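Standup notes
- HV: blocked on the assembly model, inputs below
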Amino acid sequence: MPGRCGSQYADHPRRICAAFRRMTIPRQAILDILNTSKHHMSAEDIYLAVHQFYPQIGLATVYRTLELLTQEGLVSRFEFGDHKARYEIVRSDQTHHHHHLICIKCGRVVEYSDFIDEELDLIKRVEAGLTEKYNFNIKTHLIQFYGLCGQCQIQQ
Amino acid sequence: MPGRCGSQYADHPRRICAAFRRMTIPRQAILDILNTSKHHMSAEDIYLAVHQFYPQIGLATVYRTLELLTQEGLVSRFEFGDHKARYEIVRSDQTHHHHHLICIKCGRVVEYSDFIDEELDLIKRVEAGLTEKYNFNIKTHLIQFYGLCGQCQIQQ
DNA sequence: CTCCTTATTGATAATGATTATCATTTGCAT
DNA sequence: ATGCAAATGATAATCATTATCAATAAGGAG
């Protein structure tokens, strides 16, 4: 039931059109999963989730779709240090916006949204400055803190 | 000529001791390269640089050493989206401190240090808040912006 | 200074996430 | 309805990183 490329996606129809030349069932399925999920997912997580209601899906399609969405800034790709990328849809209304706190010993990832407002305010200003100086059209940003979680501080 | 673990490293001797149980020639060589380099390097870059004056070095040793240094927060690991990590020594005096601006189409990476002071000020405050709330001992942070560089904006 | 324990090394094989390939299928403009 | 290019799915290939293991060397004890 694919219609014009991004028509049924209220959030970023124009940029969905920019990312895809054609809307397809696998792509819709992937977008649905990403839109429903509140947390970051690996490509395989997404593959498995889509597979439940669309078993024909191929893993390669998941990677290809994520690549296109990432290049259009519609999806954020995170690396937490385990050599497995995580993806998350970018919501225009900033719902669930958060940054990450990562333990460099055990790999635990904490999503925090405290301080986000203050951070976003700065981000916005820096973005404007960078756009002007380096002539970049900035789509997304990444802020992560690395350190030792409580557990790992104890185990020296 | 290795002495007590981190003795000849003025910068973070105590944390070098924490990272290593023994100081060795390969580790010194890797630290020397990292200290000399002004820019991020991949594991292979480092391997090749060390290899020039210490040809016995093995690639696995480079990875192991970088892992230990990263876990101690003495080295920052970056991922720019090409699935190849880059490493950079953390200087206690904040010399050459910078963040990154990455083109999501062509992968170009710009190091910027404009706005850094303003950013670091916020970082410091957020760090304090996160430390308290989540009981993390924060060692490093990562700030990256993603977008289209001038070139890639033109090529639609 | 020498010995001894054990951390570390280097070579190499294994792993595993991601990408490339290619024949087949499908979206969608005309 | 038709045709062509885009997209798919299966699978093979890639390649950065990690695990393995016998050999080596750091550095504390005596």
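- HV (later): unblocked. Chain B has two domains: 1-95, 97-156. The mean pLDDT of chain B is 90.
- Next: hand off to the docking folks.
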